[in-house]
Specification:
Length: about 425
């Protein structure tokens, strides 16, 4: 089933009775070449690119709940490529390029909106740091514009420029940054993978990983045993728990990151705005709700809910930046589980167990990384060689210390990244 303007008009005029399911609902088979644990954005993207780019369709994606019910549906939908360090910079640059062609590639409207992202800075030191970051982005081939205070005022006149505590000195403008509809991304990849023969198995919890002579032979699930030559763990905040089924202890901690949305308002915020002093970021959805988030809850947890002290902290940051939003009513909040690594950068790599692969440790960068993560993991699974853009995301950097990418410059404490 392909989407087109004519099809939408015809269905609209005939009661929308011609649409069918977007993906198949097969029973699990006894064996596959590749099993991907995790039916979120990264797992579905990897399955899609395995089929499309490498011609491998004897693949199953196993999801404990429903497709897209994890972190890909529990974030603030921001897409950007404004990383600083080599290793991260080229990877997120690749992801941005894939985002820009994604709707045509999938024939699916993921509502990708390049409305521009502005990171505010509030001191001379922050301005110098953002100038360096902007130069790194331009050297990578991406876009960046350093704005002074009046430049920011012209674009974001609703900010509180008169406050004395955190004066706005300017901002780093990333015009190609923006947002995308998070669940549509999962649905688009699921549809594309299913159409190419990949089996998407929902309500199928992996309860064990079978191994023999140091290599993976399959998985045990709530719907029976499945043999596989290769198994990839792509379970975001649950990576540590799933890896433990194979006897591994990953260098990750799982923390909650809360997000919030208000009632629908008339258009007021045209860009994505990030507050440089409070780790607060905000945009406006196509339905009018203000979507915003803040910092981690600072204690490890697997609960998909937040706590009131952090909610209060986020609201304070928002009110400091733009007091006008204080009259908007918050409709709901949610929490995503972040798998935080000691250097704030992810892992896409083989493990010491034959046939077992990892895609984890995405910290704050998971949603924007979805296309490149799936592309690079598919390359690794198909060729057993790391994709050049993800060559730095090796697991052994946490064992020998070589190649660490401390993007935030905050040391080895997981919850500071």
């Amino acid at each position: 089933m392909r989407f087109s303007g004519w099809r939408v008009i015809r269905e609209g005029l005939t009661g929308n009775r011609g649409w069918g399911p977007h993906w198949r609902d097969p029973e699990p088979r006894p064996a596959y070449d590749i099993v991907i644990i995790g039916g979120g954005g990264h797992g579905l993207a990897a399955a899609y690119y395995l089929a499309r780019a490498h011609g491998l369709s004897n693949v199953a994606v196993l999801e404990k709940g429903y497709l897209g019910g994890g972190n890909v549906g529990r974030n603030t939908t921001i897409v950007r490529a404004n990383y600083f360090l080599p290793g991260n910079s080229e990877f997120y640059s690749l992801s941005m390029k894939l985002w820009e062609g994604l709707e045509r590639d999938l024939n699916y409207n993921v509502m990708h909106s390049q409305r521009g992202l502005i990171n505010l800075f509030h001191s001379d030191g922050q301005r110098d740091a953002f100038a360096r970051r902007g130069n790194a982005m331009i050297n990578q081939g991406d876009d960046a514009v350093l704005l002074d205070r009046e430049g920011v005022r012209a674009m974001l006149p609703y900010l509180d420029f008169e406050q004395g505590r955190f004066p706005i000195y300017g901002g780093l403008y990333h015009p190609r940054g923006g947002t995308a509809r998070h669940d549509a991304v999962a649905w688009g990849y699921a549809r594309g993978a299913s159409d190419r023969g990949v089996d998407l198995i929902q309500n199928c919890e992996v309860t064990g990983i079978d191994m023999e002579n140091g290599a993976v032979t399959g998985v045990r699930t709530s719907r029976g045993a499945i043999r596989a030559r290769k198994v990839a763990i792509v379970t975001a905040g649950r990576s540590g728990q799933v890896a433990a089924l194979a006897g591994m202890r990953l260098p990750v901690e799982s923390h909650i990151l809360q997000a919030f949305v208000t009632e629908g308002l008339k258009p007021v915020i045209d860009h994505v705005v990030s507050f440089g002093m409070g780790h607060f970021y905000i945009s406006q959805s196509d339905k009018g709700g203000l979507v915003f988030g803040g910092d981690l809850d600072f204690h490890p947890s697997y609960a998909q809910r937040g706590n009131l002290p952090m909610a209060e902290h986020v609201m304070e940051a928002g009110m400091t930046l733009m007091p006008a939003i204080g009259k908007a009513r918050v409709l709901r909040s949610w929490g995503g589980i972040m798998d935080m690594t000691p250097d704030g950068s992810p892992v896409i790599d083989r493990t010491d167990i034959g046939g077992l692969y990892l895609d984890c440790g995405w910290c704050y960068g998971g949603f924007k990384a979805v296309p490149a993560s799936g592309f690079a993991l598919a390359h690794l699974l198909a060729t057993d060689r790391p994709h050049p853009a993800a060559a730095g995301f090796r697991l052994n950097r946490f064992r020998d210390g070589a190649g660490l990418m401390d993007e935030e410059g905050t040391g080895a404490q997981h919850n500071l990244h």
